[in-house]
Batch of 2 targets.
Target 1
Amino acid sequence: MKKLLKSWPREWRGSRAGPAPPGEEDAAHRLAVFEDIERTISGWFWATDAAGCLSYISPAACERFGVPAEQLVGQPFVSLFETDPENPGERSDRPLQFHFGAHARLNDVTVRLMQQRVGPAGRSAWWALSGHPKLDGAKPEGGGKFLGYRGSARDITLEYERRIEDSRLAEFDSLTGLSNRHRITRRFDQMLAAFKTSARPATLMMLDLDRFKIVNDTLGHPAGDELLRQVAQRLARVVGDRGEIGRLGGDEFQILLPDLEDRGKLGDLANKIIALVSQPYTIDDNHVVIGISVGMAIFPFDGTEREEIVRAADLALYAAKHGGRGQFRFYSTDLKDEKEERRLLEEALREAIASVDSAEENWENPQLSLLYQPVVRTEDHVVVGFEALMRWEHPTRSAISPSVFIPVAEDTGMILQLGAWALRRACRDAMAWPHSVRIAVNVSAVQFAHPDFPGVVEDVLAATGLDPDRLELELTESVFMGDGEATDTAFKALKLLGVRLALDDFGTGYSSLSYLRAAPFDKLKVDRSFVDSCTLSDHNSAKIIAAIIGLADALGMETTVEGVEAFDQRDVVCAKGARLIQGFLYSPPLDQATVLERMRSEALRIVPDGPQRHRPERRLVYRRIGVIHADHRYEALLRNLSATGARIEGLVGVPVGTGLVLDLGAGQLAVVTVSRSDDAVIGVEFETPLVSDGAGGLVTRHRASAYALAAAARMVSASTPQFLEVEVRKRA
């Protein structure tokens, strides 16, 4: 210390022209006080010469650097500080250089120590520097020769890191590490502001977990938190660097996807998200299965302001959730306010269920009913059972699909009352059938998870007198998502009653052999999705059907193949070993009166009747579209529509090979070539195939902006048309 003090320039130690130096005793006292302050490490001292090189630094500060003072003295002061890697391109020593160059006073200037200067661990250290310039013969009004700086320093590392962490917590979700609502909103605003001027597209995905509440309620909030963390990790794995993911709160997420508006790619990405998030989770030794629904809106086609895009994506999400869950939807202008629709649907369903009287003589209900689809033995076409299928005929909305109202019933708890009614009604109707015919009833995962469910089944069997062996309960993999111990207890109780258990939709999710080991199933049901493509040479569906049937045979289980609609499908599944078939080739679902009538007239035997070959589903449509050729626009009628082509009516004299542009509405322009022309009917093939909209419809991959459509409209003149436009009326 004394050596360093003596090494300071003579000017710093006082001028001979000044007052006499203090006594040795006073100097020693001041030095002792100075050393005591330095030892406390509450503050350090430093000094530079006129060239900005370090001339003194406290020993305690040297310890923080991890090098002796002799190695630091003489080095440029600013060389001790580096660029902050968390703020690329922004050097923490720039303010210091500015002050040094201006010989300005320093007041708690925050700097970061060079990483290699702060010990082998390489941990960042932050200091707050204060100091003032030393001038030779300085006067109050300024002037004098600049001699360097004298200053102090404080270690503010903990304070700075706490500030960084507080800033991070303000921007990111503490549970998942994803962007929080505040950050994702700000990032979206920034993106839209930049993209408006450059005409770049962007997509907002809104995501909501399906059945998450059940996990929270059955396994507890800690399990729900762990599930959210794992979901966030899977989302990050799928999205990668293509976009930014945010958690809005609860089980709601958002994804921002810049420069992406191809609805084919977006649909593929949404399907990957749905598939990965729907894979089973293991949490605290419990097997958990959830799903996810996705709604998408695209800037600038679905809105130009953030509020518009968010509302559009939210409407699409509600459409996905209440259209069957585990699906995606694109926003379209014909989507209604799904929240209001959901509220009205809940009220209507509550009224429909409330009208059901549990008294046996009043079981008939004008809205809710059960239909029965036969399960037929392939060797002799004899009916061995029926599956009960619920139908809801609303007085003003007509038929409402079970894929729409069952999720509503599950979310609101109405499924317990609804499921109990269906079970009672099915067993009651089955008592009028021959003893050899079974009845299969679908059971919701929510219904199965209720602790009273085995008791409900027992009461129904006692009240109706149905032989337990004639009742088959159809369950899906989702029954395994709850408490494993409670699930095992329910299985044991049901088997003690003597009822049969079937695993429905086997092979469509993430079917595990552990399900078959853990539960005493009597039957596997092969989902119709495999049957739809089993006749196609480029699909493995037929092999999968054979594998499922073989597995069931090995385990001593029966197998029912669903969805057989044509003879070529029947030939394939029978060749693969199918012995029980259900599908329109034999019969659509029937009401109880028709079932009883056919049983009397046909002695439980149904002869298959249907098309020889299964044709991929074609969408029958009836809507007006624009057809553009050369510089003229025609109005025509769109009929059959598939991903690769369509039938159009209303134009006469269009030669085969003619190129056209179809205006399908909402900015959808499709380039087509005429492949068939017959009077007022033409068949066209799309240059680029259409893609799924997630709701069973088809859309173009890309859309034209409103500006491009307006420009195109100006180009289409009122010139003489080359083809004859005729009016086509809808046929009955």
Target 2
Amino acid sequence: MGDKPVYLDPSYSFEERAKDLVSRMTTEEKVSQMLHNSPAIERLGIPAYNWWNEALHGVARAGTATMFPQAIGMAATFDEELIYKTADVISTEGRAKYHANSKKGDRGIYKGLTFWSPNINIFRDPRWGRGQETYGEDPYLTTRLGVAFVKGIQGNDPKYLKAAACAKHYAVHSGPEALRHEFDAVASKKDMYETYLPAFKALVQEAKVESVMGAYNRTNGEPCCGSKTLLTDILRGEWGFKGHVVSDCWAISDFHLKHHVTRTAPESVALAVRNGCDLNCGNLFGNLLIALKEGLITEEEIDKAVTRLMVTRMKLGMFDPDDQVPYTSIPYDVVDCKEHNELALEVAKKSIVLLKNDGILPLDKKKIRSIAVIGPNADSRQALVGNYEGTASEYVTVLEGIREVVGDDVRIYYSIGCHLYKDRYQDLGEPDDRLAEAVICAENADVVVLCLGLDSTIEGEEMHQSNVYGSGDKYDLNLPGQQQKLMEAVYATGKPVILVLLTGSALSVTWADEHVPAILNAWYPGALGGRAVASVLFGETNPSGRLPVTFYRTTEELPEFTDYSMENRTYRFMKNEALYPFGFGLSYAQFEYSDLKLSKDKIKAGEGFTVSVRVTHTGKLAGDEVAQVYIKDVEASWRVPNWQLSGIKRIKLESGESREITFEILPEQLAVVNDDGQSVIEPGDFEIYVGGSQPDPRSIRLTGKAPLKAVLKVE
């Protein structure tokens, strides 16, 4: 019989089914479904659902799950396939947890399938506390890793989503945190289309991301969560986005309370919905009932939003029998399983960047009798996890990782050395109350591993515990508290020092660069991060991470934090020399590049081409190399980047092994963005660089070799 309602009949499209379902709801019911905490509508068989779920580097805030390195660490792998695998594991665990919890009647916050990740904002200023959540400062790298992450989260079933990913925070959002509710980020059309929008466009058009989250700030005068320009004209108009838009949490109330673009709550919610914001993280959309009465919004506009939301829930299989949805049978035992934790450890190992090594690394445990492990991040779990984190079943700090490797054969001396940011460790202690102990430990040891940096209690998000210290942002790029003093005191003992930084952002470690024999940047490497750090320190793993951000020498050289022009920002437009450049990272091995070939020396505008190169491993220890392609437009009519990352490939080579790799360059990668935000391909010469780093003088000095170069003519 055909008496089954259309919305429950899988033979219809999700759109037809969602429209039918919405047509059966009262106005109050529709509005209730536009809040992140959507109540059940029992008469229609709609279960309660909470849209607010986090999965930045593992299922977050929902109990035990595999914890990967923080997003900035994932970015340092420069590895699309690895990020895809990571996201695939996250959605596998998310599915298992969702079905297990739902069966127990637990449909609470953080236990759903709509994940508000990835954060693909451009990390344009190193002071931003939330930059750790991003894939760094470059639009190309952010795009490639963002697309891979979304595909891994959403799965590859032709009908159903494994989980729904969300591209956030749209758009032009990167601090300052303290001002985010009233701030107007002013960006030229050129900067918008050249830097701030490309990753969002690719996630919409290439990765088919299901959801987009608006930012708190205004962009060029319009609040992002109600911006006609961003949501109507660009997102749904230019790019053809079909999914749903969610506001950032409580961002809609900023319209009238902070941005003053509306006067009342009903005006604010009408502005948001009218311009295409479908879901409210928060409770303000309750005012839609008043807005409707006042004629500020129509029932059709509400229907459109609710239909989009129901389509997403249907794509997730929430209205279909379990045996029709491919992901419902994922067993709970995949959560936090051995294979998933091994992958998290692999990602951590590949994310670690060797910034300096005068030959002291790798350490040989057979030749060492004692090690001093010193510093506020040496035995800190907090420094492993970053923000938007889950709960791991096992944590391995750097101190514990070193102990695992050296066993009972090597004596370990440990001192915290100093508090992370205060002038004393014990509240009743005198200033520098752990400094003498740290020096004593160093004096008694053959070698010192000094663990400094930040953690997510002092860099992060506004309204977070990190408020004690600049609303989550950093005032400058120096090591906080007494850490610099500790480093100088330990160094003064004359013992060889290896500096391990745990941080979510660039630090200005110029003194360390001049004095300390070796520097390792480990980011927030996830729950098993200490094991990864020890593996690199003792040569079990050859370091292969690359910087997804520039390490500047000082804050003074940077533009104002509130200035959103890309002028003199990031490797693409900076004028000074970096301390450690974007794309830089050393290895224990040497990789030689040869035989650079372009498929054509001359092309017509609108044609693509390929670049091939041979990479040879000339060292002893097997390892990964991250080959990078940069393109420089030599004769552009408009301002263009110094050069632009345009290809990445991570390859594993055994000692003595040689391999040819090929990069495909698309026509649009030769485009220049003009002042109106349009992409234009101009005739002229383009320099193509391929190597293990950027072609800048500082990278060449640090690595001891220059990338290969070829010239392409566009006619």
